């Protein structure tokens, strides 16, 4: 079916808004091996599973969960313990809590997960909620600054790659603190700590006098440049989609709520561009089983159709040059479309978790697959889940990465509410290639370097890059 080029609001709403001591316990470094099956914390009758009720403290992550029959209450714990203010979510990571668990055999430790198949956080059962957690949190400037410093010192994993170190940054913040300072002055002081931290997964979000504020660095060169042009990022994305669908002609499909474009070029090269690893449905129950099932079903439907069309292709181009990340499960499902064997795509571990790196396996998709030459197009816009997919794809000998180096922000953001309700997100997870190589900050360099979004014409230049890849396939 031919899909008429269009641009709907959901894509741009999504893209434009995107972009310690280890507790004692079982001592298992690979808990996922012995843990039981994944179960939902909430049972069908609305109460929590009896075996998971109690108080649990995480290894790493700075989390404490108090689970009773009614559900889960999450506390932030470090130098202090407090119950964060109950306010509207300020980001997707802030909008969901732990929903699933895998019990360890001894019942004294368990793995908790936000979403099925995602990051596994090991928690240990403790006797009771610490007394300090019951106190009303101090929301004054000094306490807020202390909580931010404590979170970075305990959990941030990349000061070695993004200097200066914590102590240097903390000194700047402390020098800016003054008695009786208002929220404006406090915000400016915290900004001093985060200044130059070129990590798009680390941010501070808050509201002062009704004004929403955000501190976030590490957007690369292309994205800020396009946002500053006339028409901004929206005009750029519209131009890219319209150009791709026009070039693909009668084979063009624009689908997945504007997040996917696919078709064939010259009748012999499959082309698949994915802008986002998720958001393919209009469901609003983010993180639920129903949401996950619907998202995967829609992604699989689209991939089945596309890869059925690619069966006789000479090669396939997977264009992730404008991929802004998303759900890790989608990022791992995509490489499964171009492999006939299972393999480890990458590993993860969290600072302070005491856990061995967890191997993320890429399984061949059940639906149509392509086993010929694959070219992955990337740029400095490619980030997060887009980088995970690229990293996993690169472990496949049939895949070549072409374009520009990716952004270098892999870690799933750790969302932590500060005592006054401001939201801090930081990078605490270390993603690595199977051989242990870490590409945080440096990004994944292409095996063949070509311009993707040249300054003089980023829309036409993008398709010239695609055509350059097509020309390479003629020599296969």
Describe the structure.
With 476 residues, the protein is α+β, with helices and mostly antiparallel strands. It folds into three domains: 9-13 and 220-413 and 429-473, 2-enoyl-CoA Hydratase, Chain A, domain 1, CATH 3.90.226.10; 29-134, no CATH class; 141-216, no CATH class. It has helices at residues 9-18, 141-155, 166-176, 183-194, 222-228, 232-248, 289-309, 328-333, 385-394, 458-473, and strands at 39-40, 54-58, 63-68, 71-77, 81-82, 100-103, 109-113, 121-126, 203-208, 211-216, 253-255, 260-265, 269-274, 315-319, 343-350, 358-362, 374-378, 399-403, 413-417, 423-427, 429-432, 448-449. The chain has an eight-stranded antiparallel β-sheet, with no helix packed on it. A hairpin with a 7-residue loop joins strand 7 (109-113) and strand 8. Helix 5 (222-228) packs across helix 6. The longest helix is centred in the middle third of the chain and has 21 residues, at 289-309. Residues 1-20 form the signal peptide. It holds the Pfam family Peptidase_S41. GO terms for molecular function: serine-type peptidase activity. It comes from Croceicoccus pelagius. InterPro entries: ClpP/crotonase-like_dom_sf, Tail-specific_protease.
